[in-house]
Amino acid sequence: MADRLWFLIPELIVLVGAVVCAIGGLSNGAAIRRRIGFIACGFLLAACIAVPFVYTPERIATADTLLPYLGKYIKFFAALIGILLVMSAGGLMDRKYEHAIKKGKATFSALRTSSGEFHALLLLSIAGVMLICEARDLIWLFLALELVSLPTYVMVAMSRWSKVAQEAAMKYFFLGAVSAALMLYGFALLYAATGTFVFTEMADVFEAQRAAGGVSVFGQIGLLLAIFGLCYKIAAAPMHLYAPDVYQGASAAVTAFLAFIPKTAGMLAIILLCSLVGWEDGLPPVLEMALWVVAVLTMLLGNIGALLQTSTQRMLGYSSIAHSGYMLIGVIAGPPLGIVAVLVYLVIYGATNTSAFASLACLSKDGAPVDSLEDISGLHKRSPLAATSLAVSCGSLLGIPPLFGFWGKLMLFAAGIAAGQLVLVLVAAVASAISAWYYLRLIGLSLLSSTTPQSESVKATLRWPLIAAVISAIIAIGGPLVLSSIVTEAQQAVLAPEE
Amino acid sequence: MMTTFAPSALSGYLIVSGLLLAIGFIGFFVRRNLIVMFLCTELMFQGAAIAFVAVGRYYFDYSGQVMVIFILTVAAAEAALALALVVLLHRQNNTLDADAFGELQE
Amino acid sequence: MLSLLSSLTAMPAVPTSEVLHPANLSWAGFILWMPLVSLVLCGLCAACKVKSKAPATITVICLGTSFLLTLVLWNGYTQPETILLFDWLQIHWDGGSFVANFALYVDSLTLLWMLFVTGLGTLIAVYASEYMEHDVGKGYTRFFAGVSVFLFAMTCLVMGDNLLMLYLGWEGVGFASYWLIGYFYQKPSAVAAAKKAFIVNRIGDVGLALAIYLIWSTFGTVQYDEITTVLQSEAYDASFGGWTVHAIPYLLMLAAFGKSAQLPLYVWLPDAMEGPTPVSALIHAATMVTAGVYLIIRTYPLFMLDDYALPTVAWVGGLTALLAATIAMAQYDIKRIMAYSTISQLGYMFLGLGVVTSYGAAYHVFTHAFFKAVLFLTCGAIMHGFAGQLDLRRLSGLRKMKGWKIVSYTMLVGCLCLAGFPFTSGYFSKDAILAEAFVTQGPGFEVLGWLAIFTAGLTAYYTFRVWFRVCAGPVHFEPGDELHGEDTSSFHPHAPRFAINFVLIVIALGALLAALPYFVPNETENLHGGWVAEMVHDSPARDGVPGVIVDGGQAEAHGTINYEIGHGDILGIDPHKAMYYISAIVGFIGIGFALFFHLYCRSAADKLRGKLLASRATRWLPTAMEHKWYVDEIYIATIRSPLWILGKIFSLFDRYFIDGALVNGIAGLPRVLARWFAPLHNGAIQSYAISMIGGAVLITLLMLFMPEIVEFLQSLSEQNASTEQVVATLGGGK
Amino acid sequence: MSLWLLLLLPLVGAVCVFLANASIAKWISLGVSTLVFVLSVLMAVQYGEWGSAGTGFASHVAWLSQLGITLDLGVDSVAMLLVLLTTLLTPLCVWGSFTAITSRRKEYYAWLLILETAMLGVFSAQDLILFYVSFELTLVPMFFLIAIYGGKNRAHASVKFFIYTFTGSLFTLAGFVYVAWQFQLSQHGVWSFAIHDLSQFASAMTASEQGWVLLALLAGFAVKIPVFPVHTWLPLAHTEAPTAGSVILAGVLLKLGTFGVYRFVLPMVPEAVVAYAPAIAILAIIGILYAALICWVQDDVKKLVAYSSVSHLGFCVLGLIALNPIGLEGAVLYMINHGLSTGALFFLIGMMYERYHTRDMNSIGGLAKKMPVWSFFMVFFVLASVGLPGLNGFVSEFMCLLGTFIASGSAPTWPGVLGPEYAAIAAIGMVLAAMYLLIMVGKVVFGKLKEPDIEGQHTNLPHDVSPREIGILVPLAALCIWIGVQPTVLTDAMRGSVEDVLAPYPLIVQEQLDKPETVIIIEKEDTHG
Questions:
Q1: In chain C, which residues have their Cβ closer than 8 Å to the Cβ of A182?
Q2: CB distance B106–A308 less than 8 Å?
Q3: Domain boundaries, given as residue ranges, for chain A
Q4: Residue C732, Cβ neighbours under 10 Å: how many?
Q5: Judging by DSSP bridges, how do beta strands D62-64 and C476-477 pair with one another?
């Protein structure tokens, strides 16, 4: 047990951070309150640094999870991208309130401040993702997933004091609860099929069942229901319907968060569940076909849906749906290449998607957030950095070589083809082609169009989101330089424990 | 005192749990009041909980019951969250009719 | 890379397989280079904006040098030689090569052609130096540069040692004629004519290109002497090459017909009158149009390989001669008459080729070069002097006007030759062809002979129609529309000065003297045609086909048609002798008609025309003849317009179907789908819930019952198949 | 001297341009691109593989070793020639844009230089993925060149250009990966994307697999070439692109497609090429005639020249699939020649457009009167394009057609699956080319002087072309003449590479010819299965 606690050191750091943030946010010292973001970043950085020390080969040899190295990879990058996410949320909370306090127009009241809570919730959610890596049974998995989800519901609601944000939170929460129930029921059936919660034992039972002629019906339905429940987290069809609304309603920084952290959690959980039955002789046909259908629907519906949008965030929301579809190719393809591709893609997608949302988050129009497509028209004249970051990240999401996104897609394609999923890859190619239309529209609006009366007053006012956008855009351009080492890490992450 | 638990009995429990799930879901989508809708999701959770208990009993495994405890905890957390949200929405809109929240759409 | 550099700096001089005498004859390359030098110098003049007659001087000197060199070459000629100038196209690969060097092939045929090409070219340049003087400082340089290009291309065409050199010259003269015909580039008709000439020629060029491909793939070479070697080798037999050897002559024919303005590709030539007159002379008389004749003579052995190739040539030539003559009879523009007359005379040449008298054709080329040059140059002088007037109804009695005597009488010389007046050069050359039509046995050759004789009568008529109208009769003239600031009433014709008169006299003398070669004795016995025949026969191109000796009077070929001699006769007399009388008589009749209608009783011609027009039964004849048998219109209606409309249709098809419906349609499909799926996102939480859970349950059910569904579908299709089988058996039963 | 220097120099130049003052940006980019040209010429002098089949300047850099992706560079002689073409055209394009581009100048020159890097990358890549990356990277600068500096309809044109070619090449990528996967299977899990490995291996795939791979590869390359019926992006892109964009597009970017066919399709999937060659040839011939007829009815000069590219490249495709050295050498020569002559035509049209702000043949005409030097060059390059012997266009057209002509099954050393009938029909395109180009010349250059009203948008340019513009045209004209007179230098230089690519074909063609019925079955399977 102590061994397992050792692996939880990064989570513990982040959890401590959450507590510190929550308390610090209530501090009377304005300097502390305003630097909550730095504190959060600091703890994430610490978690990041801790990862290599925690995951030494000797320690890992004692681990009893399905994928002992997974945590090393995921925790590191979740914390790293978490820093970017915190940066993009810089200036989101309490900005006016703190401004008013500074001017002396208001006095500090612990009830009216929310910055601390926000950062605490953010860190909690990241801790949830980290915990998933250490899951060795269904209970842990369930709790970790809930830890990821519950804070995000609150974050959506508090990200903006507007009706749409609350509506978004309501939809997100209610539908999330339904899907969680579905997933839970799936877990129950899995339990019924195997009689155990422990992954390694479940895997043995399933192996025995397969040897005896196939996974039991309970097992199949259980897997399906659980995966559909998780599809909600990754916004895959048909559980994706909430995503555009929620992504539009929340503020850009929170949307960036939603599009990465819960998605990573869901992806990891799906990979864990699939690894229960194993890819050795192919996934069970029912599961594989279902994932196939889900992947195709997700890629197509996501990209098609984005075409007609007039809201940038909604458009990018659809785009993030589509990216889940791409990643499912890797899940279907299975280890080692497919899972490696998914893990690499998660990182690449996380960085570039954050860049896109951060470049939106830094904009404001007379103090109000920016949403419609027309608002970013001619952005390059007023804020070339934000416009360029947006364009670069869109290019990367589209997969224009040699940007980072291309390499992720290339690996997914390679994995898909290597698994014999030619049709799936072709569908992905078509879907990518469709996506070119709206990504180019974003690029064109930000870099090429001229300013319109509506977009005249749109400027990049928030400093930290802009910095986050630029950093992640640089990652999108320069990332390929370190791609090889990322892939090496990901390859290690999917290694099975040594017997 | 342990008594054996026939597969037929297990299926009975599972059917009940499935029915709870279905009823919860149907309630979710036919009722318009947000609080009732939330209660319906709780119903779905409890459906799953019954399944866990029944299966745990079937296998003589306490983990099922452990799970249920956790489910209850999570459900409580969700309830707190839901309550806060409902209060917020009601304060803002003076209604709890789900149809009133349709501003975000195509 | 070194090889690349070395070839950059120095022209490689790797000799090809055959024996060369580069040391002896490499200077002959200057025949080719001199026009190019002239072109470059003219280009420099243009670049320096020279406003004097320097370009003319340069051109005349360069072309004159070429002519002199040709004379020297001819003088020292003993046997065929190949002179390599540089490697042009040498593509080697594993198992073969395509070699076409920039090399000259000098034999007697080449020399014959080069003599009049460079000779006449020089004279025409002299003539043009005066004729074009109103353009000094404007287009003068451009004109002489064009002449130089033309001569260069023509030299390549004639002297090249392979078909690709010929092709280079072939397209080159086409381009030069485009350049020169379009000289007055601000005149839309000139631009159109230039374009037409190039494009129609291009059709022939395609034939030539394809022929080259076929020849190369059949014989493995495009060099004349190697083709001959193959034909004479033991590998050659009747089955050699299969269908290709039968296709080659027809493709070559297409090329020749295009360049030499034969049916059906002659239409560009009359329009080419838009160029300045020396151009007309150059193109028509001397050179370009005879290229087709040269091509066929050069590749004569290949024409022997197909039974119907030469008869086709003969018939096309004969019909072209007749058609063009009828059109020429009804035209009023003297330059245009000369153009049609050229087409008609070219028809004779092809007839000659077709009836296996290549020396006759060559001889006619030779004489025609002189007398037609005279005619065009006199026409040009008249045009020049009368401000562009060319209508024979508006000019009369030129020979009585001061300063126009030389023009009138040199024109008379030309007319006599063209009409085949006894003992003029045209008389002998035409007779040689006409007689041979009766001598050689071929499909309908005799009919063709009579047709040609009839055409000769028409020729005499329209020729003298021009002369009697323009040069004889009472003095009368109206100026044309190219008055340079002069009033119509006070107009005075500008009589030609020294350069023009000098050239006219020289060429007219040449035209008369061109009869002499016919009588110069040749070394070969039994050979009609004297020196020209000898020049033609010396060429190795003549004895390409094994076992076939093609002589002026003795011809034989393999295959079903034997071009035998000795049996033909006209009215029981030996054709060659008979023809002396028949053609003289026919010529006199033609001239007589012209004398009556156009000198003594000019109104009779109009009356006759009026009568023909009045009668419904005969109205078509003058109308059609005056409208050139509507050939241009037919071409426009059947080829140009349909293609243009097709282009329009394609353009719309491209825009609205391929781009509009297919590309944009497919590209628009996602957006259509997006509209379909949009209602799914209606914003209502309950509908989201039902879609999500419903979708999940649906997929789950589908997946769980997949085997059953597949089985069901299979059974359905099996049922279908069995029903189809039943239907099929039932159908089979009926 | 290494290819890396050649590749990175423009990139560094682009950064410098971007950081520099807008007024000297053009001089920097001219300097850099000229330097690159000089370097490439020096490299060509040093190049040791002229005439042989080897790869010169090879360098190895590991990249993503897990997937066997490397950054290997190297050029065979064909690629070296195309590199020279690219480095020649780029400085000319930069120079040609001096007066035409007045706004957002820094970006413009930076994009041009980035484009040069991408194009050079395509030609010098020895790794499939590196090739693909460069291939796609060319889209980005071109997209911006069209979208920022283009004509009225530039937004639509640039997006169409991008999406169309992007979509096509995604399938190409799928094809590449498929081949790599097959290779990996045969190598027990070791991935490789090295062109050398894969092209040797791929010919071992079954016929039906090869068919699919061929279709996938062609999906990208055919769009790029472009082959009928996937050509419609080209006229639009050309019409809207700025002059330099059009020149690069016609001069080099279209060649990426044909180069792709040469580099990948021919060596990788020989059996499928043999099976599909007639179908491809028919499409090429349709393209030749169809586009030529469309040219005939165009009013926009630039659109006309754009469609003429579709028509001309049909000949190039014919040469490529003639499967004999003469055809393939002709096709490579065609790539170069088309780049020179059509590039020059676009320059000329750009010069006219700068002065008159129109390209409509109905509103402009008879320019010979006012711009004699311009007219001289116009006629010259039109003739080069028409294929006048003695100029460059003729040699390549002749060789492509000759290659097609002799590519019949009965040819002794290099049997093919085309034949005289294909060449004969394609040759009609020669007539049509003369027709539409001369009609264009007749309208624009000759005839009565007709100038559009250019009040209010007067330019500082002289009536006729300036010395700078002559300086752009003269090198192109000189090359046109040189290639026309000394084509052997180039054909000898590329001989080894070409024969190396074609080496397996005679055997395969012979096999297919011996069993004609199997060919049909394969085709059926491929189209339906």
A1: 693, 696
A2: yes
A3: 2-493
A4: 7
A5: unpaired
Q: Which residue has the tokens 């670069």?
A: A392
Residues with Cβ < 8 Å from C674, sequence gap 6 or more? Answer: A304, A305, A307, A308
Per-residue pLDDT, C400: 82
- For residue C239, the model assigns a pLDDT of 65
Contact C684 B29 (CB under 8 A): no
Distance CA A188, CA B51 (A): 6
- Residue C34: CA atoms inside 13 Å, Cβ hemisphere, count? 23
Task: Looking at the complex, report in whole angstroms how far the Cα of residue C666 sits from the nearest Cα belonging to chain A.
Answer: 10
Cβ contact A280:A336 at 8 Å: no
Left if phi > 0, otherwise alpha if psi is -120 to 50, otherwise beta: which for A334?
Answer: left
Q: How far is B18 from chain A (nearest CA, A)?
A: 8
Give the pLDDT score at C224.
Answer: 84
A457 to chain B, minimum CA–CA distance in Å?
Answer: 25
Using the Cβ of D66 and the Cβ atoms of chain A, whether some distance falls under 8 Å is answered with: yes
CATH number of B7-94: 1.10.287.3510
Minimum-distance CB partner of D147 among A401, A444, A488:
A444
A39 shares contact with chain C (CB less than 8 Å): no
Give ipTM to 2 decimals. 0.88
What is the residue range of D441's domain? 285-452+462-529
Lowest mean pLDDT, pick from A61-70, A78-87, C155-164: A61-70
Q: Do C683 and B29 touch (CB under 8 A)?
A: no
Q: Is the pLDDT of residue C368 over 60?
A: yes
pLDDT in tens, C575-590: 777 777 888 888 888 8
Interval B63-75: pLDDT, tens = 899 999 999 999 9
In the predicted model, what is the mean pLDDT of residues C270-290? 78
In a domain, D447, yes or no: yes
Residue entry with tokens 């959506």: A156
Helix, strand and coil in chain A, % to nearest 5: 75, 0, 20
pLDDT tens digits for range C205-257: 999 999 999 888 888 888 888 887 887 776 666 667 678 888 888 999 999 99
> Which of B32, B99, B105 has the CB atom closest to C681's CB atom?
B105
Instruction: Find chain C residues with C-beta within 8 A of D325's C-beta.
Output: 91, 93-94
Q: What residue spans define the domains of chain B? A: 7-94
Contact D398 C643 (CB under 8 A): no
pLDDT digits (tens, 9 = 90+) for C654-664: 888 888 888 88
Does chain B touch chain D (at least 3 C-beta pairs within 8 Å)?
Answer: no
Q: Say if CB C449 and CB C563 are below 8 A apart.
A: no
CB contact under 8 A, C217 and D388: no
Query: Residue C481's closest CA among C587, C551, C388, C367?
Result: C388
Q: What is the least distance, in Å, from the CA of B34 to any CA of chain C?
A: 10
**What single letter denotes the amino acid at residue C464?**
F
Query: For strand C96-106 and strand C81-93, is the pairing parallel, antiparallel, or unpaired?
Result: antiparallel
Q: How far apart are CA C642 and CA D297, in angstroms?
A: 12
Give the chain B residue whose CA is nearest to the CA of A138: B67
**Facing residue for C693 by CB, picked from B25, B30, B105:** B25
What's the pLDDT tens digit per position in C662-717? 888 888 898 999 999 888 888 888 899 999 999 999 998 888 888 888 888 888 88
Q: How far apart are CA D473 and CA D489, in angstroms?
A: 22
Q: Would you say residue D417 lies in a domain?
A: yes
The domain in which residue C321 lies consists of 308-534
pTM of the model: 0.90
* Number of independent structural domains in chain D: 1
Q: Which of C94, C199, C654 comes nearest D438 by C-beta?
A: C199
Distance CA D326, CA C96 (A): 10
- Please classify residue C138 by burial: count the beta carbons closer than 10 Å to its beta carbon, then call 0-12 exposed, 13-18 middle and 19+ buried: exposed
Query: In chain D, what residues touch A299 (CB-CB under 8 Å)?
Result: none
Q: Which of A154, A174, A197 sits opposite B63 (nearest CB)?
A: A197
